[in-house]
Specification:
Elements lengths: L8 H16 L4 H8 L3 H9 L6 H10 L5 H12 L15 H11 L3 E6 L10 H9 L7 H13 L12 E6 H5 L5 H15 L4 E6 L13 E5 L7 E4 L6 E3 L2 H17 L3 H14 L1
Parallel strand pairs: 1-2, 2-3
Antiparallel strand pairs: 1-4, 4-5, 5-6
Helix pairs in contact: 1-3, 2-3, 4-5, 7-8, 10-12
Length: about 280
């Protein structure tokens, strides 16, 4: 297979998971390559995501590594053999790769969890809200680039829309609901949109109010993306240089615990809807 110049996050993740299996088996790269009948350089390309890998090679590697997790193996095979081109490909070369990687990650997810303290979660944002967020960027984006980002963000909502939505839970701090990213009318429309989405059976909205005692978790914003198997879960966190993808088992376990802690202190779904209703009436 030809060498890739720039693997996607999904391609790199496949390589990372194969590397984890090799390390768990206690094999050095040259040892694993010899079992495969290739050289260490070729195996290194596979593990970095630069080199493609076939279904047969994935299965042979799993066997050589004594991996008995059949669900994980099948998931890795699916990642290796997927040649589909998703809707996000129309933005390739027009938006940073991190935007496309996030859309691809969500396309293959089994569920989504969000915790936000200062902004409404991206999957809940209206066009006006998203446009206001992207307009605040320094230096300012050209109008065409700004509108591409807005369209891309709106297109990502496909995972929570019919006909095949995934379960989604968003925990939102009162600060994010009160901050007027746009004007008063846009703020009202944004709250109304959240309320409408919260009526769907597969969507859960929870609110953390300002007056909650003993809450010290306001730095734990996260996008948690459930994989087809738990070992393929991913946490996405914003950073100045772009989105960061976290996939180590230890960190994923820590973020799952943090989400449960935040979820436990938030208002239940009905009280959360009532809370948002009250905020909307204040506008």
């Amino acid at each position: 297979m030809p060498r890739r110049r720039q693997p996607t996050a999904r391609q790199a993740r496949l390589g990372t998971e194969l590397l984890k299996l090799r390390e768990a088996a206690g094999l050095k790269g040259r040892e694993a390559a010899a079992l495969l009948g290739t050289d260490a350089a070729r195996l290194s390309q596979i593990e970095s995501g630069v080199g493609g890998v076939s279904e047969d090679t994935v299965r042979r590697l799993a066997a050589n590594y004594s991996c008995a997790d059949t669900e994980l193996i099948e998931a890795l095979v699916a990642m290796a053999t997927d040649r589909s081109r998703g809707w996000w490909e129309e933005y390739r070369g027009e938006l940073p790769n991190a935007f496309l990687d996030l859309a691809e990650l969500e396309h293959h997810c089994s569920y989504r969890l969000d915790v936000e303290f200062l902004h409404v979660p991206g999957l809940f944002q209206t066009q006006d809200y998203a446009r206001a967020v992207f307009s605040y960027r320094v230096p300012e984006l050209p109008d065409a680039d700004l509108e591409r980002r807005v369209r891309h963000r709106m297109a990502r909502k496909v995972i929570i829309e019919e006909p095949a939505p995934v379960p989604y839970e968003g925990v939102i701090h009162e600060a994010a609901l009160r901050i007027r990213v746009g004007n008063r009318a846009e703020a009202g429309a944004q709250l109304a949109s959240i309320l409408e989405l919260s009526e769907a059976d597969h969507i859960t909205v929870r609110v953390i109010p300002f007056d909650l005692d003993g809450f010290a978790g306001a730095t734990n914003s996260m996008m948690y993306v459930g994989g087809v198997v738990p070992k393929l879960d991913t946490v996405v966190r914003d950073a100045p240089q772009g989105a960061g993808f976290i996939d180590s088992e230890a960190q994923l376990g820590a973020f799952r615990t943090l989400f449960r802690k935040v979820e436990a202190v938030s208002l239940d779904p009905q009280r959360s809807r009532d809370f948002i209703h009250r905020l909307a009436k204040e506008l």
